[in-house]
Amino acid sequence: MTQRSRIDLINNLSSNLLPVSQRSNILVPGFLWFSISWLYVVALSLYLGPLRVGALNALITNPQFVFESFVGLVSGALFCTIAFQESIPGLHRKWLVQLSFLVALIWVACYTVGLSFPAVDPSIIGKRAHCVLEAYLYSMPPMLVGYLLIYKRFPVDTIRAGLFIGISAGMLPALFMQISCMYDPLHILTHHLGPALVVIISGAVLGMVFRKR
Length: 213
Hints:
The protein is built from eight helices and no strands. The protein is mostly helical. It has one domain (54-212). Helix 3 (55-61) crosses helix 4. It is elongated and about 80 Å long. The mean pLDDT is 89.
């Protein structure tokens, strides 16, 4: 192919192209996934059992309990945001990723501090016999749905997308167990946050599988 014919070919292929808008909106799909996931967790949790007695009152009147719950909610929303950002090249923000991990560490630190200074007096009131299994039941389906939504938008880094959406999904039950299961910082770290690690790893593995595809 000569230089002239190559130029003519390029001109012919590009002559009828129409301008398109930049695909940079991740707020709508991210918000929908986060909201629907929360509705799923709340509805299923209430179907399987009642809230812990006095939990809602503590959520209103106990500043420490309110703070650790709020930080967890913000952390989940941040990881949802950076997970969906992975589906758009150039939208990844290093400072936002760093902020997300910082807030998550603060959230975990709340329960670590709670080992000595718990927000609520530890007790077995509201204990769910199978809270670990419930945690997987609450988080795995949202994680899978969220990852597929991101993957359909062609993420640049599938592993990172799986990791981030796994963290956000894993936080859903860990946070709601604040009011639906017994409150004890050690129990929270082992039985509520522990399963979240499995979900996070599963998200990363899912990203590895789809990366090969």
